[in-house]
Amino acid sequence: MSPHKSSSATTQLLISSELGSDAESESVSSSGALSSLTQDLKSKSKVKHNNMVNNQKKGNIAARDQCLHFACWIPCAIDMFCNLNDIFHIVMLMEEEEASKVLSEPEDEDVKAQRDKVLSYVSKDAQERYMKNYSKILLGAPYLHKLARGNLKQWTELHAILAEVIMSQVRSDDASHLKSCIAQYAAPDPLDKGLQPPIYTDNKSHALLGVNHPQLAGMLCPIKHAKAYHEDPKKVQAQLQNGDIRIHSAAWPAFIYEGTPPGTDFDPDNVQEGFLKGYYLKWVFCHIFMSPSSALIPDGEMNVTDHRCNAKLHGMKKVEPKHIAYTFIQSQFSIAMCDKWQETDGCYKYSEAYTRLIKAIQEAPDQTWAESLLQWWNKMVFGNKNGLVIDLTKDNEDDDLTVMQRQHKMHVAAAHQEMQLPEGAAATSAIAEDTTVPLTSMTQFEAANSLVLPLPPPLLSATPRFIDTAMESAK
């Protein structure tokens, strides 16, 4: 379906939704009936996702289900706070605008005016971000590109898929799963000693988490106050509770730094030292991108190639800044007092913290440090600083047929090398390799590979007459 045919409808849809999900969220929250319907859709979406995961493990998954399954990976690896409807609508309007520049016929003025009005609401940086996310989504779910460029029926299916994918539900699922594991992951040595006082996972209330828990308060404490917390935990905890020390998105929490407890090794004169290497952050990362059962496995000891983990299912071959940023947000939220997922917690804005952490790596003043950080993460997760490197040699050694075929090729190659060359070929090869003797009538390659004729009798002298006679004899 041509983008021009759908421009007006797309524009009206974007204007009515105000380019985001805020208006939709407000309308749903204002109506009990709609809220109930949304919860029902989320429940059905979760059941469908679980079925798709099982089908993928069996190697049987339809193109449409593949798109829905990949959508669950989008917040983790592409954009945690993206809106799929906005991405597709904005990018298609951008493509339509580019196509209009080379049209042979004048464009409809109403269509152009509506498109320009919608795009004027989106900054150039946002448009660039939409385009990058769009390209990554199509790479993982190419069927969506076919629908977006298809007929009316395919266009309708695309909108049905986009409507079924609820990004907030994916974030909520990860958050709810993590809440039940916090008692283990937040403790420095969970196999020896848990949090004090203990956290009971069957308690649905999280009022005793966050700054109300003495150890979690130290993990959420802004890193510049970590030293004061370790010196007088009760005093700093009280300051966190009454707001004298603010927890906001511009301040890094202590838990993302190295140290046991977190932040004990923090150097205020070298803020990036130990940054994003906290034990709690590592364990949450493995929980999300590997599996809950592998979260506490020592660094680099898990064999990802033999494990049915999220990283392998989605083709993740190396750790990227957005993977770490997603882990950071989920880690922060999981030890907070919030009972349900929400994008703000008091003055803390999760979307802002997410963007800031990505920039801290991608736009770091010291790119050598940023590269070494990602290498550290790859080494920790995949056992290799360059990411997931699959060595097929080991598997081939266990395949007897492959070994037989390889040995046969080696024997054939050896037999060719041992074949006897024609008489005198060795002498010609020696002459060809001697660069001090120029060859005028043929190249060195031709001389080395040509049939060698019997050598003429030694010349009595080097006079031109004898040389001519020898050449005539050769003819």
Number of strands: 2
* Main β sheet profile: 2 strands, antiparallel
Question: Could you state the order of secondary-structure elements as H and E?
Answer: HHHHHHHHHHHHHHHHHHEEHHHHHHH
Mean pLDDT: 77
Short description:
By secondary structure, the protein is mainly alpha-helical.
Can you offer a commentary on this structure?
There is one protein chain. With 475 residues, the chain is mainly α. 58% of the residues lie in helices and 1% in strands. The protein is built from 25 helices and two strands. A two-stranded antiparallel sheet has the order 1-2. Helix 11 crosses helix 18. It is globular, with a radius of gyration of 33 Å. Mean pLDDT is 77; it is low at 1-39, 55-60 and 423-467.
Task: Give the tags.
475 residues, globular, disordered N terminus, mainly alpha
Outline the secondary-structure elements:
Layout: H1 3-17, H2 22-29, H3 32-57, H4 63-71, H5 74-77, H6 84-100, H7 109-120, H8 124-140, H9 143-148, H10 152-164, H11 167-179, H12 182-185, H13 214-220, H14 226-231, H15 233-242, H16 279-289, H17 310-313, H18 321-334, E1 344-345, E2 348-349, H19 350-362, H20 367-382, H21 392-397, H22 400-418, H23 425-433, H24 444-449, H25 464-474
Antiparallel strand pairs: 1-2
Helix pairs in contact: 1-6, 1-7, 3-4, 6-7, 6-8, 11-18, 16-18, 18-19
